Amino acid sequence: MIDLTKSKAAFEEAKKYMPGGVNSPVRSYPHMGCPPPFIQEAHGSHITDIDGNTYIDYVGSWGPMVLGHAHPAVIKAIQKAAERSTSYGAPTVMETEIAELIHQVYPSIEKMRMVNSGTEATMSALRAARGYTGRDKILKFEGCYHGHGDSLLVKAGSGAATFGSPDSAGVTKGTAKDTLVVPYNDIPAFTKMMDEKGDEIAAVIVEPVAGNMCCVPPVEGFLEALRKETEKHGTVLIFDEVMCGFRTTFHGAQARYHIHPDMTCLGKIIGGGLPAAAYGGRREIMNCIAPDGSVYQAGTLSGNPLAVTAGIETLKQMMAIPDFDKILEKKTKDLLTGWKQAADKAGVPLVCHQSGSMFGIFFSEKDVLNYHDACSANAAQFKAWFLSMLNQHIYLAPSPFETLFMSYAHSDEDIEKTIQAADKAMEEAAKV
Ligand code: PMP
């Protein structure tokens, strides 16, 4: 067993002052039977806790750390920017630079607005879609998570699923009634809902690769059906690529699946580990945003110079390495191949999913296509696996509903070590 004495004490102290002792629920290690390691520092592919345990990190701050932690060029750029002040609340040239850069990588984003979190990006995109169409209803998919905006905390994934509250208390009935929900990957159910209500729906919002019920890629034809039906009904199609952006491919899921959404939400990687996100899309929709239009949305720290600097530097570093996304995809594939072999050896049924450098596993005999399937996976086996991996210094997300992330900093040696650890962890899972 690893020693978590200091983390345990820190957690007890934190619980006195913060709900669950944390600033985001899944960090509290729900149902995992051990305190969360409190983190001291992280470099490259490794993260170290206050007890001095160092782990190979596949959480990567839940996605942003695609270059690995404390990347020297990113840190240097942030330091230089900080010397010029941490915030101006006024326009800077670098905001146009990042918007141009994002437009190059995501041509469907003709205009964009920066915000501070993925939550703000999706909330604001929905408001824009409602303002643009003059309609109230939105449609989301069960098990997708789009941040904690009221209208999106309906049948939500991620921590909301982990804690058994996909429909959050505190969301009014009035708000929830405007959110229609359909199972992910269910083309007939979606088409039926659009036939019945399409003309009242302002926006369909989707994670084109779902990453908040673990990793669930779209089935063939699903995203095409979304595009076709939304076009038919004049509904805005929003791809929430906060997680899968720059990971499924560098150009996002929209490039992998050749679907052009009307709007896109980005986050995580575009802040290089600092709080930044963005929403954007077709010019005529974005022209509805204040001050050009009457949809109000603003932010004291939006376009913050440190976050924008970190984002630009992260994107430039990624762009400087030919086939960056393919390299990460290959590393991820190697890792999952090893995990699957470990599971087979131990006689544990395992489903492995990957989309570029996002990945996840389900302790399940049958494939996982939606939230219902994800919930049917074996939670006890997941817990045994998770604890064994942690004890072998492999840092994974402490919930079966979360995706894992590969970074450029993960070496072949890291991957080999992680596969070796999986041999033992799968044996532990087999005992459950
Ligand atoms: N959309 C998606 C797809 C996400 O995965 C997340 C967070 N994991 C969000 C939105 C919300 O982002 P944030 O936590 O930055 O508010």
SSE inventory with pairings:
Layout (H helix, E strand, L loop, with lengths): L4 H13 L21 E5 L2 E4 L4 E4 L14 H12 L9 H13 L5 E5 L2 H16 L3 E6 L16 H4 L10 H4 L2 E5 L3 H11 L3 E6 L15 H12 L2 E5 L11 H5 L6 E4 L10 E5 L1 H4 L18 H16 L3 H23 L4 E5 L2 E5 L8 H6 L2 H13 L2 E2 L8 E2 L6 H20 L1
Parallel strand pairs: 3-13, 5-6, 5-7, 7-8, 8-9
Antiparallel strand pairs: 1-2, 2-3, 4-10, 9-10, 11-12, 12-14
Helix pairs in contact: 2-11, 3-11, 7-8, 12-15, 14-15
This protein binds 4'-deoxy-4'-aminopyridoxal-5'-phosphate (PMP).
Instruction: Give the total of domains.
Output: 2
Tell me roughly what share of residues is in helical segments. Answer: 25-40%
Report how far apart the termini are: 18 Å
Please give the count of helices: 15
Estimated radius of gyration: 21 Å
CATH topology of the largest domain: Aspartate Aminotransferase, domain 2
From the spread of the alpha carbons, the general shape counts as globular
3D architecture notes:
Keywords: Cytoplasm, Isomerase, Porphyrin biosynthesis, Pyridoxal phosphate. Belongs to the class-III pyridoxal-phosphate-dependent aminotransferase family. HemL subfamily. This is Glutamate-1-semialdehyde 2,1-aminomutase. The chain has 432 residues and is of the alpha/beta class. The chain has 2 domains: 5-70 and 323-431, Alpha-Beta Complex (Aspartate Aminotransferase, domain 1); 72-320, Type I PLP-dependent aspartate aminotransferase-like (Major domain) (Aspartate Aminotransferase, domain 2, 3-Layer(aba) Sandwich), CATH 3.40.640.10. 40% of the residues lie in helices and 15% in strands. It contains 15 helices and 14 strands. Helix 2 runs antiparallel to helix 11, helix 3 (93-105) packs parallel to helix 11 and helix 7 (187-197) packs parallel to helix 8. The mean pLDDT is 97.
